[in-house]
Design brief:
The complex is a heterodimer of chains A (244) and B (93). Chain A contains 7 helices and 9 strands, in the order ββαβββααβαββαβαα. Chain A is α+β, with helices and mostly antiparallel strands and 244 residues long. By secondary structure, chain B is mainly α. Chain B is built from 5 helices and no strands. In chain B, helix 1 packs across helix 3. The chains are: A alpha+beta (244), B mainly alpha (93). Chains A and B meet through helix 2 of A and helix 1 of B.
Chain lengths: 244, 93
């Protein structure tokens, strides 16, 4: 088991052990307590942009991914206020892009969709903005569909830090913020992006998809048909902790 | 609202969006960006409501009044049932 000097903090009245340097989110997941996330990936530092992992620390509402675990910390991760907040944040993401789950190739293995279920979202509620975003199908092997992008910046980080290619970036501010491609032409075909790049693996939605493969997994056998996103996230956090 | 297309739900949505931003934003800009809207909704709600496509109004249909006769009948049936308990039998199959 754990050593005698293992520090701990409290989530929803339960003692959660953590390793120094871990975030509230990492410790919670490793302890088997799921907190929904979208912009977080175990391989990268916290981004803190999607806000879906919000928890309450005293009077303040903070993202669990960007909050360092510390001794004596008392966190509320489950409350009606937080549930409503997470649900509204996910609804806003849905209303901001063009997310048509029934027609999307990633349906059933999409994190945004799975988080939608996890936060018990039944409708988008807010007026959809229906942005006009052209698809970039220039690359021979990869389809880039900006309609589904939620600006989590995971492909940006993966391409820069792991693939070493700096293919993607975010440009603009506020509602005009968008994913751009690092090429004179602005087209994905003119970048060194390859099918095997991590940038493709980390996309939580169907914005970056391999071409010539579609709907190849039957309904009932898709990723989140097999196990819930919560179980997957907990398993990933536990194996990530094990590796370190 | 300016075009006369908004409804009460839009006002509620704005208030909620401002509240979500106040609670969940990372920095003070996001936390306070909704303040003008919040203040407008708080202090000038009647002015805003006058511009709604459908003004808020009490429903013409009074549910309680409409249900009153049925409730009275049920109460009478209950009184009859308690007086003659033997009639409270299984209905024929």
């Amino acid at each position: 088991m754990t050593g005698p000097a293992q520090p701990s903090f409290v989530i929803d009245g339960l003692t959660i052990p953590y390793r120094p340097g871990e975030s509230v989110l990492q410790a919670a997941l490793a302890a088997g307590r799921y907190i929904p996330t979208l912009c977080y990936h175990p391989a990268f530092p916290a981004h803190g942009s999607c806000r879906v992992c919000v928890v309450q620390q005293g009077e303040r509402i903070v993202p669990a991914c960007a909050t360092q675990a510390a001794p004596g910390l008392v966190i509320t991760a489950t409350s009606p206020v937080l549930s409503e907040l997470r649900r509204d944040l996910v609804r806003m993401l849905f209303s901001e892009g063009n997310h048509v789950c029934p027609g999307c190739e990633l349906s059933g293995r999409c994190q945004l969709q799975a988080v939608g279920y996890a936060v018990e979202m039944t409708t988008v509620h807010y007026h959809p903005l229906f942005p006009l975003r052209a698809v970039d199908a220039s690359h021979p092997d990869v389809l880039l569909d900006f309609n589904r992008c939620i600006l989590c910046e995971l492909c940006v980080r993966a391409s820069a830090e792991v693939d070493g290619k700096h293919v993607f970036a975010l440009a603009g501010r506020g509602i005009d913020k968008r994913l751009i491609v690092n090429a004179e032409s602005g087209r994905l075909a003119d970048t060194p992006l390859a099918l095997t790049d991590m940038a493709l693996q980390v996309c939580p939605v169907g914005a970056l998809l391999p071409k010539r493969r579609g709907f190849d997994v039957a309904i009932g056998e898709r990723r989140y048909d097999q196990q819930t996103l919560a179980d997957e996230a907990i398993a990933a956090a536990q194996s990530h902790r094990h590796e370190r | 609202l300016v075009d006369g297309q908004a409804g009460t739900r839009d006002l509620d949505d704005w208030a909620r969006i401002a509240e979500v931003m106040r609670l969940a934003s990372h920095c003070g800009l996001g936390q306070t960006a909704g303040n003008p809207l919040r203040d407008a909704l708080e202090h000038f709600r009647p002015t805003l409501e006058r511009r709604l496509a459908v003004a808020p109004h009490p429903p013409a249909f009074d549910l309680e009044a409409a249900l009153a006769p049925a409730r009275e009948l049920r109460a009478q049936v209950a009184r009859l049932g308690s007086n003659t308990a033997t009639t409270d039998q299984e209905p024929p199959a």
